[in-house]
Amino acid sequence: MTEVLRYAAFTTDQGGGNPAGVVLDAHGLSDAEMLAIAQDVGYSETAFLVAGGSKDGEVAADVRYFSPVAEVAFCGHATVATAVARAERHGPGALRLSTPAGPVSVDTRLEDGHLVGTLTSPPAHTRPVDPEVLDEALNALRWSRDDLDPAYPAHVGFAGNDHLLVAVRDRATLAALDYDYAALQALMAQERWTTAHLFWAEDVTTFHARDPFPPGGVIEDPATGAAAAAFGGYLRDLALVPLPSRVTIHQGHDMGRPSELLVDLVEDAETVAVSGRAAPIEQSGSGA
């Protein structure tokens, strides 16, 4: 019987963060079995790890991610949850992951009595959104161009998969989000976006975000590590933050699952580092 763990990522409280399923030993599982487990777990993603050999304290592993609807190329919160879950059982250290989106490294360490996972994303890049596509997105979000913050141009950011990046002028606009699920779902399928990363800048390095996730069958994600990495690449490439910087993203507050994602940006780097903690969710399922 497959052991399925449940963790909340980017929080120290099981009632916060983004829940993820974690299978630390996925040897022999078929695609259909992994999808069925993800559906049974019911979270936005479940990670399936197949650990390989180790060298110089580093463990190599293959990992795949499934939402209840389909496989996802890369998932940041499930990666952090997996790394913390494994570190609790085998001790902190380095994981070198092979994902469908490319190689991803994640390191775990103890800080103030809590395990912290830091993932290094695939290479990040960004591009402007086509104006007509942006208008479609705003229509689905029930926003107008007057709601947008001109300091942060709308882009599509990539760090393993594509994310729409849209900034609003006012925190209240973000808090009142009530979008057209079917319309946004259709547009995101057309554009192959994984989430819409909607944000408000509290200051130059502090942001509040909400992430609709219709491609995964989820109205909203309370913490999105992959989007945080893409967003970090966007901030760096457009020179919207001084370098080096640590960017703090507050996500999930408006849906009652507060999360904190820390994004470290340096010059002359293609990748982005995203850090967070993870808490086990009580009464984890032990079978599927």
What are the main properties of this structure?
about 290 residues, 2 domains, isomerase activity, 6 helices, Diaminopimelate Epimerase, Chain A, domain 1, Phenazine_PhzF-like, 17 strands, disordered C terminus, isomerase, Oxidoreductase, alpha+beta
Tell me what the structure shows.
With 288 residues, the protein is an alpha+beta fold. The chain folds into 2 domains: 5-120, Diaminopimelate Epimerase, Chain A, domain 1 (Roll); 125-276, Diaminopimelate Epimerase, Chain A, domain 1. It is 23% helix and 40% strand. The chain contains 6 helices and 17 strands. A hairpin with a 2-residue loop joins strand 12 and strand 13 (206-213). The chain is globular and about 50 Å long. The N and C termini lie close together (7 Å). The relative contact order is 0.19. Keywords: Isomerase. It holds the Pfam family PhzC-PhzF. The active site is at 45.
